Amino acid sequence: MTAREKGPSSIVVHEAWLPSEHPYHRPRHGGRQLMALISALVFFMVPALALMLGVRPAMFENRALAQAPNPADGWGFFTELPAWANDHLPFRDGAVRAVDGVSHNVFGEPFPLGARLDGGRLTGRVATPVPQDVPAVPSVPSVPFTPSSGVPGVFPLVVTGKNGWLYFGFDVEAKCAPIRPLDQTIDAVNRLRAAVVASGRQFVFVVAPDKTTAVPQYLPPDYAGRDCARAGTGVFWSQITHRAGAVDLRGNLGALAAHGDPIYHRLDTHWTDLGALLMTRVLAERIHPGSTMTWKIEPTQTAQSGADLPRLIGRTGVNVYRQYSLAPSGDRDRTGPHVDDIRQPVLIGAGQVPGVLGESVTMLADSFSESAARYVTAGFSDVALVSYETAGSDPADIGALMARRQVVVLEVVERNLASGAVPVLQPDALDVITAQLAARPRR
Question: For the whole prediction, is pTM greater than 0.85?
Answer without folding.
Answer: no
